[in-house]
Design brief:
7 helices; about 85% helix; about 0% strand
Length: about 170
């Protein structure tokens, strides 16, 4: 282990930076994978988490991956609202863990677990479940989600489905 540490220290600074960036990217991917796994297995049991999953997918499909400045702005505003809300919780639990660290290690551990939980909840909002390449397929998926969430399909979604269906027929 010491040999590996010395080897890294002897590398030029730009290579150390590249390795650090790659490690950070790898950790982020692992955390996203863990968050997805936890959401599907542990949290996927409740109807509320299923509703939240559909809501995230709906926001991603309809707003952030659709064309038009209005859709982009609205989608990213909603996405970052949820991400920042969870990051606020992370901040609160971090501060509590730091404040309580000297008094009670059990409460500190609980605060750290809560911090990780809310961090993963925020990361889930940043990573879409599945990327759909075809516009027609995307708008049909949006229509299915709207039926599940609201009981009907929005008129603008029907217009986009008709528009892209007509483009594929030509």
């Amino acid at each position: 282990m010491a040999e590996f540490h010395n080897f890294i220290i002897e590398l030029p600074g730009y290579i150390q930076g590249a390795l650090g960036s790659a490690l950070c990217l790898l950790l982020l991917k692992v955390m996203r994978t863990i968050a997805g796994f936890l959401s599907k297995t542990i949290l996927g049991l409740s109807a509320k988490s299923e509703h939240n999953r559909l809501w995230r997918k709906y926001i991603y499909l309809k707003y952030t991956s659709s064309g038009g400045l209005f859709y982009y702005a609205q989608g990213y505003l909603i996405t970052f609202y949820y991400v920042l809300r969870y990051m606020f919780y992370v901040f609160i639990f971090c501060v509590l863990a730091i404040m309580i660290a000297g008094f009670n290690p059990i409460v500190k551990g609980i605060c750290i677990v809560a911090t990780l939980y809310f961090l993963l909840k925020g990361l889930i909002w940043l990573e879409p479940e599945k990327k759909i390449k075809s516009a027609n397929t995307r708008w049909r998926a949006i229509a299915e989600i709207e039926k599940l969430l609201y009981g009907k399909v929005d008129s603008d979604t029907e217009e986009f489905i008709e528009k892209f269906s007509n483009n594929e027929e030509k």
